[in-house]
UniProtKB/TrEMBL annotation, chain A:
It comes from the Bacteria. Pfam families: FdsD (PF11390). It comes from Billgrantia kenyensis. This is Formate dehydrogenase subunit delta.
Automatic annotation (TrEMBL), chain B:
Residues 109-148 form the 4Fe-4S His(Cys)3-ligated-type domain. One of its GO terms (biological process) is respiratory electron transport chain. One of its GO terms (molecular function) is NADH dehydrogenase activity. It comes from Billgrantia kenyensis. This is Formate dehydrogenase subunit alpha. Residues 1-21 are annotated as: Disordered. Residues 31-109 form the 2Fe-2S ferredoxin-type domain. Residues 171-202, 215-243 form the 4Fe-4S ferredoxin-type domain. PANTHER family: FORMATE DEHYDROGENASE H (PTHR43105:SF14), RESPIRATORY NITRATE REDUCTASE (PTHR43105). Gene3D superfamilies: 2.40.40.20, 3.10.20.740, 3.30.70.20, 3.40.50.740, ADC-like domains (2.20.25.90), Dimethylsulfoxide Reductase, domain 2 (3.40.228.10).
Length: 81, 972
């Protein structure tokens, strides 16, 4: 059966993390960059919300990347409408 | 008419007209030979025939069995000439030029000989010229005229072939052997041009005749109906049925085929605005005068009664359609879109561009989304086929496109085909590949299925790595491991052209013993020795070329595999010259173009990221609106958002997501959730059954524009008939934009291309004037490459140095287990195209009128399944029922089907699993169970009911429109 939208996003983030895991110290930043470059605003919002609410199903690397995403958004917010 | 100049053909500049037949093929020698023909001095490359040399000097020697797309055969004797100092009258087609040769092509002796030859031919040929379908286009008739044949002294009563029976079995052409002169052109075309070897000359002397297969009917033989024989036939023996029915065309227009990514050039031969036949155009840079059964014959869909001709609207999808004028339909759509955005927000709507429409149309749809919808929710069907190519090649090589021309394969020593089935999906290029294979190139196929290319006639020793579906990345890593661990890498190339730190990191990664073929064997199922041998073959070849298809991209690791391929090519220095490269074989005609034109939600035209302020600034200045700096939703994300209730309206141009996208039930749920679905298509496709607005589309014959093929070649599409519904697709998008309050004004697609050129660095040199002058252009085309770029990355990469990417193998979630013990993989067949909307409405149905499930004998036996039984295929996503075909083309444990027929529900079983980087669906791996059943699946029964209802609702609209107005009815 189809997964819910959030489940899909969690799965996608974990998948991106798994495919970048080999990059070691750079891995979290690579995953973060990927999310930033390819995910729509609404998808980013949902995954960041999930991070704040629960985040338990994100793999450690995906979680780090989503944290970076959340930080970036928090920093960007005051200047952009 | 276009003048075609190809510098590759001859060392000396020599204009060559594609409409002319020069008798024998060009020779490429750099040594030039001078001779005199009828007193005219001429210099040609060594090896050129006297016949061709004469033709180049516009001296036309009569000929019948010669044609410049076939090697000389010397059987008709009509092209005999006299050569000073030589005995007899040699055939000019088989006589190569020699320095100082003096040739006479016309004198009394030659005239007598030629007349005698023709007299013999005509003594066994029906004299029904006036009623013959070839009347007006018959080389035999022309030659009888040229040699001045006036009588046949032998009479017509002797033994002859006049009663030979016609073979009408092929739906597109007939074979009338009573008119055959046994020149062997058809047999040679089948061998040399197509490479199928379906035709032979059977018998000897007077008994010799052309035979298909083992003297079977054409349809029962291995004939693939490419039309090369019909094209080659100098009489009406092999003749298009459309010409037999309609007569000879009176004018023709050169245009580009709208089927696969090869992008063949065709002459649409016309009577008024009716296409009589499509003839492959010799001046076409992609196909050089060859064709396949789809482009050559399957164009009847364009005038099929199912074509939508009137815009239609309805409030809900269970209501009958109401036929309305264009204005009302556009206003209805625009109002709905505006209302939805007002209620649910700017990001609640989006659009899907079509890989079947032109570059100009695709550009306008994404512009509509970005400038009128004011978001980046645009995507295209490349999402579900080649998006990993875009991602993977851009990351490693710096450009989202293949690196070569098709012709480059003729320089390849080793051809590696990964996850592609060229003979079925890219048939005209497959013929060229086979030509190279017959010349001795080696072939390595990496594919779970034994594809037809592996049984190329007159080629031996192909290596087949029949890997388990879903293990591509493990395989490519193993091959790279062999290259590096055995020291087969191209150190000079790597040092000069690639990023050193990236290479070092990758080198360490790939040298890890876990990538050794011996350790990967358990994953891929391919013996280590085979992998080692294949890697060595590729790495050690002077020129190794990789061609790949959807069997690479449509995986959870599609992007990793594309990067793995690029890694391997860079490591072996197989980039940046003829004969090598990384070549994605694109599925649909304009997949490359739709990607180039900014269809992806994160990229503006020319692969320029929406997050880049400098890029946005240029587009904002040209378009006069701010552009959203965040990527939009991709197709699968749109579906998820629709089901979640956040995404409410979609404009789909020329794309059938309900049939082509995976997990049909999820897609249907998403489409049902939309408050406004606008479908622009030539037929009521599966998606349109969920629509509220139907905008009739125009076929490629009804519009001007350009397509870009798999070799980045931009080709002109030319309108040959008026659009059936009155508008070309680009005009409809303009209307919609204007109705939404965003002004768009273009009078002709040429203006759209000018705008694209002004905004896209790789297209600055492209214009209709340049395209008409050059025939076609391979982008990048700009100041640095004014005539385009046949081979990419010759000096450097667009990103400077090549980037090796670390591609760890991560197994797919779609693993077989006890419940789903088999792996389903999907593919295509020659006669049908994609969702089949076009080809199912042609006689191509005669070859493939249902999708079947190919099942290995061992798996069949285990389940008690026999050939032809109905079998249910169940996955985690759903169930469907197909007929079984027992076949050992796949390894045990793997089953295979196609998705050309909507009722088959192949995508009911494919799942949400997708590529990690691009969300390209994993069509190629679905864990399934197969069992014998006696009735269609629940989905199929529901599909049939829904299909019947929607056709009724469509018919209702048409009947309603056909009725007289209410006032008149009242008087009845």
């Amino acid at each position: 059966m189809s997964r819910s939208q959030l489940d899909t996003l969690i799965h996608m983030a974990n998948q991106i993390a798994a495919n970048n895991a080999h990059y070691g110290d750079d891995a979290a930043e690579r995953v973060h960059t990927h999310l930033k470059k390819f995910w729509a605003r609404s998808m980013k919002r949902l995954i960041v919300e999930y991070l704040h609410e629960d985040g338990s199903e994100l793999s450690p690397l995906a979680r780090q990347a989503v944290e970076l995403l959340a930080q970036g958004q928090a920093e960007a917010r005051p200047t952009s409408a | 008419m276009l003048n075609y100049y190809d510098p590759k053909q001859t060392p000396a500049p020599q204009h060559f007209l594609p409409e002319r037949d020069y008798g024998t093929p060009a020779r490429l020698s750099e040594t030039l030979v001078s001779l005199e023909i009828d007193g005219v001095a001429i210099t040609v490359p060594e090896g050129t025939s006297v016949l061709r040399a004469a033709a180049l000097a516009d001296i036309n020697i009569p000929k019948l069995c010669a044609s410049d797309n076939l090697e000389a055969f010397g059987s008709c004797r009509l092209c005999a000439v006299q050569i000073e100092g030589r005995r007899g009258l040699p055939a000019s087609c088989t006589t190569p030029v020699a320095a100082g040769m003096q040739v006479t092509t016309q004198n009394a002796r030659l005239a007598k000989l030629r007349r005698n030859v023709m007299e013999l031919y005509i003594s066994d040929h029906p004299l029904d010229c006036l009623t013959c379908p070839a009347n007006g286009d018959c080389e035999l008739q022309d030659m009888a005229g040229a040699v001045g044949l006036r009588e046949v002294r032998y009479g017509f009563d002797g033994d002859n072939h006049l009663d030979a029976e016609t073979d009408d079995s092929n739906p597109y052409f007939s074979f009338d052997p009573s008119k055959c002169i046994v020149c062997s052109r058809c047999v040679r075309a089948c061998e040399e041009v197509q490479g199928t070897f379906a035709l032979t000359i059977e018998g000897r002397g007077f008994e010799s005749k052309v035979a298909a297969g083992q003297s079977e009917a054409f349809m029962d033989s291995e004939c693939v109906s490419c039309g090369a024989c019909v094209q080659a036939c100098p009489t009406s023996t092999l003749m298009e049925k459309s010409v037999i029915e309609q007569g000879q065309p009176e004018h023709s227009v050169v245009t580009t085929c709208a089927y696969c990514g090869v992008g063949c050039s065709f002459k649409a031969e016309m009577q008024g605005d009716r296409v009589v036949r499509m003839v492959p155009y010799k001046g076409g840079d992609a196909n050089h005068g060859h064709s396949c059964v789809k482009g050559r014959f399957a164009f009847g869909y364009a005038t099929h009664p199912d074509r939508l001709k009137t815009p239609m609207i309805r409030e809900t999808i269970d209501q009958p359609w109401r036929e309305v004028g264009w204005e009302e339909a556009i206003a209805f759509a625009a109002e709905r879109l505006k209302a939805i955005q007002a209620r649910y927000g700017r990001e609640s709507i989006g659009g899907i561009t079509s890989s079947r429409c032109t570059n100009e149309e695709t550009y306008l749809v994404q512009k509509l989304v970005r400038a009128a919808f004011r978001n980046n929710n645009t995507d295209t069907c490349a999402r579900v086929c080649h998006s990993p190519t875009g991602y993977g090649l851009k990351t490693t090589l710096g450009e989202s496109a293949g690196t070569q021309t098709f012709d480059s394969v003729m320089q390849a020593d080793v051809i590696v085909v990964i996850g592609a089935n060229p003979t079925d999906a890219h048939p005209v290029f497959a013929s060229q590949m086979r030509r190279r294979l017959r010349q001795g190139a080696e072939l390595i196929v990496v594919d779970p299925r034994r594809i037809d290319l592996l049984k190329t006639p007159r080629h031996r020793g192909a290596q087949h790595l029949a890997l388990r579906p879903g293990t591509n990345v493990a395989m490519i890593n193993a091959m790279a491991h062999v290259v590096i661990s055995e020291g087969l890498e191209d150190r000079e190339f790597i040092a000069k052209r690639c990023d050193a730190a990236g290479y070092q990191a990758w080198r360490e990664f790939i040298l890890d013993p876990r990538h050794a073929p011996e350790n990967v064997e358990a994953i891929t199922g391919v013996p280590a020795e085979q992998v080692r041998r294949a890697a060595r073959t590729y790495a050690q070849a002077p020129n190794g070329a990789i061609y790949y298809g959807l069997g690479v991209t449509e995986h959870s690791q599609g992007s990793s595999m594309v990067m793995g391929i690029a890694n391997l090519a860079m490591a072996t220095g197989n980039i940046g010259r003829e004969g090598v490269g990384v070549n994605p074989l694109r599925g649909q005609n304009n997949v490359q173009g739709s990607c180039d034109m900014g269809s992806f939600p994160h990229e503006l035209p020319g692969y320029q990221h929406v997050g880049d302020p400098a890029v946005r600034e240029r587009f904002e200045a040209a378009w006069g609106v701010p552009i959203d700096d965040e990527p939009g939703l991709r197709i699968p994300n749109m579906f998820d958002a629709a089901v979640a209730g956040d995404f409410k309206a979609l404009y789909v141009q020329g794309e059938d997501i309900a049939q082509s996208d995976p997990n049909t039930q999820h897609v249907e749920e998403a489409l049902r959730s939309l408050e406004c679905l606008i479908v622009q298509d030539i037929f009521l496709n599966e998606t349109a059954k969920f629509a509220h607005v139907l905008l009739p589309g125009s076929s490629f014959l009804e519009k001007d524009g350009t397509f870009t093929n798999a070799e980045r070649r931009i080709n002109r599409v030319r309108k040959v008939m008026p659009p059936l519904a009155g508008k070309q697709d680009w005009e409809v998008t303009i209307d919609l934009a204007n109705a939404l309050g965003y002004p768009m004004h273009y009078d002709h697609p040429a203006q759209i291309v000018d705008e694209i050129a002004s905004l896209t660095p790789s297209f600055t040199g492209v214009s209709y004037a340049r395209l008409d002058a050059l025939g076609s252009i391979q982008w990048p085309c700009n100041a640095a490459h004014p005539e385009g770029t046949p081979t990419m990355h010759v000096e450097d990469f667009p990103i400077g140095l090549g980037q090796f990417a670390i591609t760890d193998y991560v197994a797919s979630d779609e693993l077989s287990n006890r419940r789903f013990p088999l792996l389903l993989t999907t593919g295509r067949i020659l006669s049908q195209y994609n969702v089949g909307a076009q080809t199912r409405r042609t006689h191509n149905q005669a070859w493939h009128d249902e999708d079947v499930l190919e099942l290995h004998p061992a798996d069949a036996e285990l389940r008690g399944v026999r050939d032809g039984d109905w079998v249910g295929i169940t996955s985690r996503a759903g169930q469907t029922v197909l007929r079984a075909r027992i076949s050992d083309r796949m390894p045990p444990g793997v089953v295979y089907t196609t998705f050309h027929h909507p009722g088959s529900g192949a995508n009911v079983i494919t799942t949400d699993s997708s590529d990690w980087a691009t969300n390209c669906p994993e069509y190629k791996v679905t864990a399934v169970q197969v069992e014998k059943v006696s009735q269609p699946s629940a989905w199929q029964r529901q599909f049939q009911t829904f299909d019947r209802l929607q056709l009724q609702l469509l018919r209702g609209a048409r009947d309603e429109a056909a009725r007289p107005p209410a006032a008149e009815r009242a008087n009845e």
